[in-house]
Amino acid sequence: MGVSDPRADRFRRHSMILVPLDTAGVTIGRSTTVFGYDDGDHGGVQEWVAESRLAIDQARLLVLKTAWLIDTAGVKHARTEVAAIKVAAPRAASYVLDRAIQVHGAAGVSGDTPLAATWALLRTLHLADGPDEVHLRSVAREELRRHAQG
Fold first, then answer.
1. Alpha carbons 146 and 81: distance in angstroms, whole number
2. pTM of the model
3. Cα–Cα distance, 54 to 99 (Å, whole number)
4. What CATH superfamily is the domain 44-149?
């Protein structure tokens, strides 16, 4: 990429030329680093995949625990866990989706992939059965009550 017309409007003065790497005369002098690191092996993306797996598994385990508690003790005794799931599941889904959007760059927020539309739908899960803050308040009240009972 370079300036091909310095007199043009500032958003129209650049040109990009793409050629296959095996074109005669093309050599790669060095890899560009970011903050001094050469992350060409996609280490950051791999970390996001791992973090996404953890977030999904944590939410899944909380769902399973809540279902078990409802089955064994009744829904009344699972109210705190139900409230927690209403926050944890959308958070996990949002985290995973946000990483997917980031990996895709501008395409992630365009209509070229389903990610932007999915984000718009997913965002409503943070509000659908009450805002996250209401559910967090319910969890906090129960935790404080348990602590006060000692």
1. 14
2. 0.70
3. 13
4. Butyryl-CoA Dehydrogenase, subunit A, domain 3 (1.20.140.10)
